[in-house]
Amino acid sequence: MSVRITLLPGDGIGPEVTTQAKMLISALADDYGLSLEMESALVGGAAIDEKGDPLPAKTLDTCRRSDAIILGAVGGPKWSDPNALVRPEQGLLKLRKELGLYANLRPVRVHPKLFAASPLKPEYLDGVDLVVVRELTGGSYFGEKVEGDKFAMDSCTYTREEVERVVVRAAHLARSRSGRLTMIDKANVMATSRLWRKVTVEIMESQFPDVKCDYLLVDAAAMFLMSKPASFDVIVTENMFGDILTDEASMLVGSMGMLPSASLGSGSFGLYEPIHGSAPDIAGKGIANPLGMLASVAMMFEHSLDMVEAARRIESAIHQCISSNECTPDLGGNLSTGQAGAAVRSRLDGYIPTGVAHG
Ligand code: NAD
Ligand code: IPM
Ligand code: MN
C-alpha cells in the first residue's frame, strides 16, 4: 500500500512532538511494508515568519494531495499581539474549514497508574472512558467578525445540516460503544443551542431510538465532568464548548500532553493532532509529553489508513509505557520527549490481541 502523509510541525513544542510522530510512523511503515511518502510543510507562526501567511497555498496543496495530516501545534507569544493582522491560529482554522473536517474526535481514557497525576481523587477517575465529538467548522469560530477598539463581534451561527452531520456521526459512535450519548449546549440562552437541541431530538428519535441521549447545559456539564466523569460515554457539542471541555477533561488523564484527536470529514482523509497547544513555557526544553501526539498517530492508522492492528499496537505500547512509568515529567516521570517516543516504539511488539490465547 502506498501512503502519503503531510507533517505540519508548527510552533513551540509542535516540532518536538511531530519528530516523534514521524519516527513512529516510519517504524510501522517498515513493519507493514508500506510505501510511505512523508512531506513537511509550513503552518502557523513558522509560516508567518517565512511566508507572511499562516497557511501558505503550497501547504494547503500538499495537504490536499495526502491521505492524512499530522499537525503539532501552532501559536505562541511571538505572534500574540492583539493588534496583529495575521495570527498562527488562523492557519489551523482555515485548514480545518477548507478540508471540510467537521467532526473532531477527542477520546479521554484514564490509566490507573496516572490517578496520582490528576488533581481529582482516584475514586472519581476509576472507569473514565469517554469521547468528545466536537463540531469543528462552525459556530463562533467561523461566524462574521467585527474587530475594533470600541466594538467587537463574533457571531455564532449553525445551520441544520452542520448540526445533523456531526450528531449523526456521534450517534453512530455511541451505538458502537455503550449506546449512550450526551448532547451539551446552552439552550437556556443561545438560539444556536436551541437549534442543536431540536435537531438532536429529531435525529435521535427517528434514527437512533436504541441510543439513549441525555441533554446537559454546558455549565452543569463542566461540573459533572469533574464530579462524575465516569458517567459519560460519547459527548457531542458545538465548537467552542468542545474546545473548553476537552482541556478540562485532560485533567482527568493527568496532563494536557495526553489527549489525541482526529478531525474527520466525509471520507477517510483526516487531520490528526494532540489537543494541546505550543506550550511556550516548556518549548525547547525537550520535556514535552509526546503521548497525545503518538495516540493521534494511532487514530490516523485506524481512521485514515484502515490499519486497525497498527493503531492497537500503538495504544498498547503507550499503555505499557505508562504502566512502567516511562513518562515525561508532566506525568511524574523523568524521560525526555525523545526517550518517551523511543520507549513507545520499543514496545510496539508487546501487543497481545484480545481473543488470542497465550499459553
Ligand atoms: P497549551 O496547551 O500550549 O499549554 C497549556 C499548559 O499545558 C502549559 O503549561 C503547557 O506546558 C502544558 N502542556 C501542553 N502540552 C504539553 C505537553 N505535550 N507536554 C507537557 N505539558 C504540556 O495552551 P496555551 O499555553 O494556552 O497556548 C499556547 C499557544 O498554543 C497559544 O498560541 C494557543 O493559541 C496555541 N494552541 C494551539 C493549539 C493547536 O495548535 N492545536 C491548541 C491549543 C492552543
Ligand atoms: C485546539 C486549539 C485551537 C481551537 C486553536 C489553536 C485555534 O485550541 O485545537 O483545541 O480553539 O480549536
Ligand atoms: Mn483547544
Structural class: alpha/beta
Write down the overall mean pLDDT: 97
Strand order of the largest sheet: 2-1-3-12-11-4-5-10-8-9
Helix content: 40-55%
Radius of gyration: 20 Å
State the domain count.
Answer: 2
Sheet with most strands: 10 strands, mixed
What molecules are bound to this protein?
nicotinamide-adenine-dinucleotide, 3-isopropylmalic acid, manganese (II) ion
The helix tally amounts to 12
Strand-and-helix sequence, N→C?
Answer: EHEHHEHEHEEEHEHEHEHEEHHH
Coarse shape:
globular
CATH level-four homologous superfamily name of the largest domain: Isopropylmalate Dehydrogenase
Low-confidence stretches: none
CATH class of the largest domain: Alpha Beta
Query: What fold name goes in the CATH topology slot of the largest domain?
Result: Isopropylmalate Dehydrogenase
Spatial separation of the terminal alpha carbons: 34 Å
Q: What is the CATH architecture assignment of the largest domain?
A: 3-Layer(aba) Sandwich
Structural account:
By secondary structure, the protein is of the alpha/beta class. The protein has 2 domains: 1-96 and 268-359, Isopropylmalate Dehydrogenase (3-Layer(aba) Sandwich); 119-253, Isopropylmalate Dehydrogenase (3-Layer(aba) Sandwich). The protein contains 12 helices and 12 strands. A 10-stranded mixed β-sheet has the order 2-1-3-12-11-4-5-10-8-9, sandwiched between helices. The protein has a two-stranded antiparallel ribbon with strand order 6-7. The longest helix is centred in the N-terminal third of the chain and has 19 residues, at 14-32. The chain is globular, with a radius of gyration of 20 Å. The structure holds nicotinamide-adenine-dinucleotide, 3-isopropylmalic acid and manganese (II) ion. Nicotinamide-adenine-dinucleotide (NAD) binds at residues 13, 73-76, 89, 92, 255-257, 273, 276-282, 288-289, 292, 330.
